Amino acid sequence: xxxxxxxxxxxxxxxxxxxxxxxxxxxxxxxxxxxxxxxxxxxxxxxxxxxxxxxxxxxxxxxxxxxxxxxxxxxxxxxxxxxxxxxxxxxxxxxxxxxxxxxxxxxxxxxxxxxxxxxxxxxxxxxxxxxxxxxxxxxxxxxxxxxxxxxxxxxxxxxxxxxxxxxxxxxxxxxxxxxxxxxxxxxxxxxxxxxxxxxxxxxxxxxxxxxxxxxxxxxxxxxxxxxxxxxxxxxxxxxxxxxxxxxxxxxxxxxxxxxxxxxxxxx
Length: 267
Hints:
The protein has a 7-stranded mixed β-sheet with strand order 1-3-2-4-5-6-7, sandwiched between helices. Helix 2 packs across helix 3, helix 4 packs antiparallel against helix 8 and helix 5 crosses helix 7. It is globular and about 55 Å long. It is α/β, with parallel strands linked by helices and 267 residues long. The model has no long low-confidence stretch (mean pLDDT 97).
């Protein structure tokens, strides 16, 4: 998979791995890089079958496979210990990594994620899937911002959204890949395993998220042995984009508060 390493070159700098949502590409994290790279070694990547990580995904593609292939890619780059910051699907990859590779994962941040799929989110995914299969890629892409961003933000950023739409159509990951990734996402259910995740986990949500009810994040935080919760009032499903300054400040504060003593001394 295509992977990029940026930020601090200090030998003792903690490593943050940023995992995107269903879109899968590293560019989602652009609003976070300036805030994170002065303090951390930051890894971004295009998930298998998306962006520059071209591949045909197999039948039965799963969250376990997503976590394993990321762990293997990181190991190939000499990265053995890291924290995971993931948006929606990316956050679930982080939880799966914490379960399957507990010796490698220090902390996990789950942005607008869940313990198990909510019926409302299931309905939203079905609508998006119906658009893709019955109308086409362009309709799927045009609808996507409605689930990601608040209406007033969309109204103020139409030129940007139009450019993003054109880019997403031109670089679409392919119907079969998307459907297999979506099936893996919808099938992920951590209720029977969450008690085994001992790492510090932050669930952070936005109250105006259209795609994932904000109440899913408190449920996740409460179920975790070492979970914590941050609630943002505004920003939609992609509040790390629409309210990046506020999101980045909250994230940096939590990372500092949960750092190991040696990391605190170095910061």
